UniProtKB/TrEMBL annotation:
Belongs to the class-II aminoacyl-tRNA synthetase family. Its EC number is 6.1.1.21. Residues 1-326 form the Aminoacyl-transfer RNA synthetases class-II family profile domain. This is Histidine--tRNA ligase. Homodimer. Signal peptide: none annotated. InterPro entries: aa-tRNA-synth_II, aa-tRNA-synth_II/BPL/LPL, Anticodon-bd, Anticodon-bd_dom_sf, His-tRNA-ligase, HisRS-like_core, HisRS/HisZ, HisRS_anticodon. HAMAP family: His_tRNA_synth (MF_00127). The gene is hisS. It comes from the Bacteria. It comes from Psittacicella melopsittaci.
Length: 417
């Protein structure tokens, strides 16, 4: 036997016993998205590396070290998409969907990041993302957050997730704050972790995110972003909080929440859970009023989020267990050479809406009944050459063992009764 070739590290198969859950959760989310008149956009998995460098930010973890990038045969640098926002904005600009218009969009599909694989963190994972363009209004931010709350409600997760929000103001406010933060931290440089030392020059706000205890101790007395915000940003955040409260949505203000991406302004948020260990954030996003402009389009405000689909599925499984694939309604037992008749019977039932597992492999009757029991179907149809000649089938209720002979012409009506 030749050597087995295995999948790449961090690249997972979704096996047949898991796809039912995978798809049914997505259907639930898509139904809610439709009620919010948010329509799907599909964009490529591969884009120019420059798109992500500009759209996600050179100094972000994603662009610095997490992209799958390569050079094509004609010397173009391309990357597998690490996230969906940049590609979505590129498509909107390219097709004239953002200029002077409102767009309510979502995407779903795989994203790729070169990270150390662990539970809830993979190299290929799925995100469902929402991007709303053309509206700058705290009520819109609230609408999207309330829609997320409906996701959790529909999936039975409301009690397991917490909404954390913050405002990071304008890029000017952040630049001023960044200077003050760096001025303060320089004096304690030796006490910071290596990543944070590097970020002093590249992306100082990310230091707030550091998991290092010494760094966090130094940060305890650092200047805070809230003191650098302008009045408009403060008012915007107050309005958002008031609308959420008026709509019964609980939240926690987390002043350290800055998010990893460069392009956010004002509102940022995360939905977190305590049930998934270190991979606590299920859904995260914020406002990005400058991104379209950064990517070469006309200034267009935006608000959106990315939802980590595997983490969502893990959370559902953690608190509710796994949803099994529904079994067949009818299992057909082929006794003898009756394949063409059983195909005809199966077709009739399938066209009437039944899920039919036709045991074309045949075999010993006893073994076929064992298979029928294992299939979970409540009904077995038995077909043999005599029944076929008479255009009949035997219907057996597997729970009770009750059995009757039915004319093919009456079969659908009889099964529906
Ligand atoms: P983290 O801090 O966990 O690395 P992030 O800030 O990099 O998250 P985003 O880029 O905002 O995450 O992506 C949105 C969501 O996608 C995350 O909140 C998470 O649920 C999910 N996600 C991000 N990276 C991965 C990954 N490598 N594997 C699985 N899910 C991921
Ligand atoms: Mg990350």
């Amino acid at each position: 036997m030749s050597k087995v070739i295995k999948s790449l590290r961090g690249f997972n198969d979704v096996l047949p016993q898991d796809t039912y859950q995978f798809n049914s959760v997505l259907r639930t989310l898509e139904q809610i998205l439709a009620q919010y008149c948010i329509n799907e956009i599909k964009v490529p998995y591969l884009e120019s590396t420059a798109l992500f460098a500009r759209g996600v930010g050179e100094a972000t973890d994603i662009v610095e070290k997490e992209m799958f990038s390569f050079t094509t045969n004609d010397q173009e640098s391309v990357s597998l998409r690490p996230e969906g926002t940049a590609g979505t904005m590129r498509a909107c600009i390219e097709h004239g969907l953002s200029y002077n218009q409102e767009q309510r969009l979502y995407y779903f599909g795989p994203m790729f990041r070169y990270e150390r694989p662990q539970k809830g963190r993979y190299r290929q994972f799925h995100q469902l993302g929402v991007e709303i363009l053309g509206i700058r209004n705290p009520a819109l931010d609230a609408e999207v957050l309330l829609m997320c709350a409906e996701f959790w409600q529909a999936l039975g997760l409301s009690e397991y997730v917490t909404l954390e929000i913050n405002t990071i103001g304008t890029s000017e406010a952040r630049a001023n704050y960044g200077k003050a933060l760096v001025a303060y931290l320089e004096a304690y440089k030796d006490q910071l972790d290596a990543d944070s030392q590097r970020r002093l020059t590249s992306n100082p706000l990310r230091i707030l995110d550091s998991k290092d205890a010494n760094t966090q101790a130094v940060l305890a007395n650092a200047p805070v972003l809230a003191d650098f915000l302008d009045q408009e940003s403060k008012d915007y955040f107050e309005q958002l909080k008031a609308i959420l409260t008026a709509n019964g949505q609980e939240f926690v203000v987390n002043p350290k929440l800055v998010r990893g991406l460069d392009y956010y302004n004002d509102t940022v948020f995360e939905w977190t859970t305590t049930r998934l260990g270190a991979q606590a954030t299920v859904c995260a996003g914020g406002r990005y009023d400058r991104l379209v402009e950064i990517l070469g389009g006309h200034a267009t405000p935006g608000f959106g989020f990315g939802l980590g689909y595997e983490r969502l599925l893990l959370l559902i499984e953690e608190v509710q267990g796994k949803q099994e694939t529904p079994s067949a309604d009818v299992f057909i037992i082929n006794e003898g050479d009756v394949a063409s008749y059983s195909l005809k019977v199966a077709l009739q039932l399938r066209q009437a809406g039944f899920k039919v597992l036709n045991n074309l492999a045949g075999g010993k009757l006893k073994k076929q009944f064992t298979k029928a029991d294992k299939s979970g179907a409540p009904l077995a149809l038995i077909i043999n050459p005599e029944l076929s000649a008479a255009n009949q089938v035997n219907v057996k209720r597997l729970a009770t063992g009750e059995q009757e002979t039915v004319d093919l012409a009456n079969l659908v009506a009889s099964l529906k009764a």
